[in-house]
Amino acid sequence: MASYKFKCRDIGMDCDFKASGKTVDELMPKIAEHAKNAHHIEQIDDNLKQKVQSAIKKSMF
Ligand SMILES: [Zn+2]
After folding, report:
1. What does the domain layout of the chain look like in residue ranges?
2. How far is the CA of 48 from the centre of ligand 1 (A)?
């Protein structure tokens, strides 16, 4: 089954956070929560959202 993976490092953060989910919709809230807790980003704006979405990779594993 496919999964979607995100690495904080891929958007230029010096951070080892990784998240994965079965869908992008499942993954986004995990990233949002991490951004808030670890990077004090209260709200993901459109600019950052685009960055995050382009950093999400689809994996077959
Ligand atoms: Zn991070």
Report:
1. 3-59
2. 13
